[in-house]
Design brief:
It is a single chain. The protein is α+β, with helices and mostly antiparallel strands. It has three domains: 3-49, Structural Genomics Hypothetical 15.5 Kd Protein In mrcA-pckA Intergenic Region, Chain A (Roll); 63-126 and 211-242, 2-Layer Sandwich (Alpha-Beta Plaits); 130-208, 2-Layer Sandwich (Alpha-Beta Plaits), CATH 3.30.70. The protein has six helices and 14 strands. It has helices spanning 3-9, 15-23, 116-123, 143-151, 188-194, 226-242; strands at residues 27-29, 32-33, 47-49, 63-68, 97-98, 107-113, 131-138, 154-155, 158-159, 164-170, 174-181, 200-208, 211-212, 221-223. Strands 4, 5, 6, 7, 10, 11, 12, 13 and 14 form a nine-stranded mixed β-sheet that branches. Strand 8 (154-155) and strand 9 form a beta hairpin. Helix 3 (116-123) packs across helix 6 (226-242). The relative contact order is 0.15.
């Protein structure tokens, strides 16, 4: 990740401000002054702004599973003044950031962490980490369309990979569908349904890998255990090393 993007992602400042600070020679990475605009870093690197004094923070690695409400931005800061995920973690003495994104109008499971290794593994497309969504759409969803969702849908950015699709309920007014995918395209689930002319009225991410929101109320979170962190990392590494792509049987 480029340094200025990492600084923005971590909530240190905006990307434009980061570029200004780098040009002024006020940014260090692992204690080394950086003047190269495209300098590449990982989220495990220590990035600091010279002259900035901040409250001492706990540097231990930690990851939380958050049940994101609707109308919350998956970010550290928002230029438009909207509520962001990190607003819910003000009592935690860590420099945290969301692991990936969940749309403003989508609720549900989101990891929040300061663990760069976990972040890189969970968000990298090669790890094929399953994510399950519950979509409420308008109208009566056709069996043919459910099968096409399973097989793959041609979107403007290419064909989607196979998905696990289960019909929960349907009537003339609305249908509720569970959909499990491992890709992370922008607004992918909504676009998959839009492809057939359905409008997604409500979208909730139920789980990430084996992590589900059981016992976690909307707007609340829980800390992952060390064994859960190890397990999610090992799952991602295994999929990446073996190039494992989930295959789903038709239901």
């Amino acid at each position: 990740m480029r340094l200025q993007k990492a600084m923005s992602y971590l909530g240190l400042c905006s990307r434009r401000k980061a570029e200004e600070l780098i040009k002024l020679g006020k940014v260090k990475v692992n204690g080394v002054l950086i003047s190269e605009m495209g300098y590449l870093v990982s989220l495990n690197d220590k990035i600091e702004i010279i002259g900035e004094i901040k409250k001492e923070q706990n540097l231990d690695k930690v990851t939380f599973l958050f049940n994101k409400p609707l109308g919350v931005v998956s970010s550290v800061k928002d230029d438009r003044g909207r509520k962001v995920v990190i607003d819910f973690f003000k009592n935690e003495n860590y420099r945290l950031y969301p692991v990936g994104r969940l749309d403003y109008n989508t609720s549900g499971a989101l990891l929040v962490s300061n663990d760069g290794e976990l972040t890189n593994l969970v968000t990298h497309p090669s790890t094929h980490l399953n994510k399950t969504y519950i979509a409420t759409i308008n109208g009566f969803v056709k069996d043919l369309h459910l099968q096409e969702l399973r097989d793959g849908v041609e979107l403007e950015d290419g064909m989607t990979e196979r998905a696990l699709v289960k019909l929960i309920s349907r009537n003339d007014n609305k249908s509720v569908v569970s959909l499990t995918i491992h890709e992370g395209r922008n607004r992918q689930v909504r676009r998959m349904f839009n492809h057939f002319g359905y409008e997604v009225k409500n979208l909730h991410r139920e789980s990430i890998g084996f992590l589900n929101l059981q016992g976690v109320e909307r707007g609340k979170y829980r800390k992952l255990s060390n064994s859960e962190v190890i397990q999610i990392k090992e799952l991602c590494k295994k999929n990446k090393e073996k190039n494992v792509i989930p295959t789903y049987k038709s239901k």
